[in-house]
Design a protein that fits this description.
By secondary structure, the chain is α+β, with helices and mostly antiparallel strands. It is 38% helix and 20% strand. It is built from 4 helices and 6 strands. It has a 4-stranded mixed beta sheet with strand order 4-3-5-6, sandwiched between helices. A two-stranded antiparallel sheet has the order 1-2. It is globular, with a radius of gyration of 15 Å. Pfam families: Glutaredoxin. InterPro entries: Glutaredoxin, Thioredoxin-like_sf. This is Glutaredoxin.
Length: 122
């Protein structure tokens, strides 16, 4: 089995190989709105997890500034994920809602779909 190496670690699949996608094109105002809308998001992840890499690539493609939290090596982040989301499973997107409630979204495809729905330029 061939391995490729990228800035996120080691991957077996060409889907996650060597490159980070170019981000979408937005005006300065549109990017400022995207930055503001993504400030209350955090991605709990393991650096070399292929599903986490998939989500990070989508975040990069969408040009979002979402904090990543290492739930593998940082005990505080791991505890937050377990206490808030109910399990230590990654990737997990923590979504701070406007009403103050928190949503914990698991599964890479669900996270990607949620991000695309909210941040994909028209």
């Amino acid at each position: 089995m061939a391995f490729t190496f990228n800035r996120y670690g080691c991957s077996r699949s060409p889907e996650y190989a060597l490159s980070t996608p170019e981000s979408v094109s937005r005006s300065a105002d549109e990017q400022a709105r995207a930055n503001e809308a993504s400030k209350d998001l955090a991605l709990y992840q393991f650096k070399a997890c292929p599903f986490c890499i998939k989500v990070r690539k989508e975040i990069a493609r969408l040009g979002l500034n979402i904090e990543t939290r290492d739930a593998q090596h940082n005990p505080e982040h791991r505890a937050e994920l377990e206490a808030g989301g109910g399990q230590v499973k990654v990737p997990c997107l923590k979504i701070q809602q406007e009403d103050g409630s928190v949503r914990w979204l698991y599964e890479s495809d669900d996270i990607k779909a949620w991000l695309q729905e909210r941040f994909e330029p028209a």
